[in-house]
Amino acid sequence: MTTLAASALTVHFGHGDRGLTAVDRVDLEVPEGATVGLVGESGSGKSTLARALCGLVPAAGGEVLLDGAPVPKRHGGRAVDRRRRVQMIFQDPFASLNPRMSVGEAIGEAAAAGRGGARRGARREQVRRYLELVHLDPELAGRYPSRLSGGQRQRVAIARALAARPEVLIADEITSSLDVSVQSAVLNLMRELRGELGISMMFVSHNLATVRYVSDHLAVMYLGRIVEIGPTETVVSDPRHPYTQALLRAVPRLGASPAETAADVELGDPPDPHRPPPGCHFHPRCPVGPQAVPERTICVEQDPRDGAADRPHRTFCHFASSSPGRAPAVPPREEQFHVARDR
Ligand code: ADP
Ligand code: MG
To answer: Is the CB of 13 under 6 A from ligand 1?
Structure first.
């Protein structure tokens, strides 16, 4: 069963020459209890898609479904309920924490909204439980966010989101501003929570190694569109879209800045989002498209999503191919993060 889904979801910003389509008719499902990873370079629309799924930015088209039922676009009872059922954590934990609320107050408030309306004593016990769940000392309940380290703050943001008892948790670049050693600890926490709570998650990051580590399904986003989606190990071991293949060749070492990744060097500058290329958005940078093979004009003329629903592998490329014999340059998942943790 599907917990959260986007159906032809579209988000526009601005108008006319300055207008852009940040999310372009995206179909995506977060199955119950599963973690879907969303990866793509900066500016591809990952955060906008995540925010639209939470109702934090309005959709210009399509819909968001929660347990199969469309979520109303306007504010009101069910829209408010959605806010609780779909919780989001951000890159900057300050964005989800009120600086004037102590850790205990912040978590307690979320727990009160999350059906756990409880007496004061029971509330304190709940706060304690959530702090322990994210491996924080319950003594921190009296602290304010400014007196915590970055990693502690992100754990509090996670605890607060969980206290609302959401059905889906959306994590947007939650490790991107943390030190490398803290990053792997938070990633391991997310994996642990997924196992313990059976919660559905969407995990968003520009870093493929990070996304791969925590996700059962992998969705690759490029200029507002999902270009490839499938079980994580299938996509990683047999990527079919030339953009996914480039991303995999370029998996940054943990902690490398996105500017240092080989994908940027290999693919050149991303296109102007205000004037996306026609047909397949990726064609001007594509190593198998019309730049390399001039007769492949279909890439300029036709959106590769048209008619793609019937293909077995969910890859939106007219010339999708597997590349047998070429092992993707990704280190084994466990090993990579153990190395990082020991540093
Ligand atoms: P990502 O999270 O993948 O880096 P974003 O969703 O933040 O991408 O941005 C997608 C595109 O939408 C970018 O071109 C960005 O500049 C644009 N964008 C994002 N938020 C806004 C906004 N509030 N107003 C106008 N443009 C925006
Ligand atoms: Mg983002």
So the answer is: yes
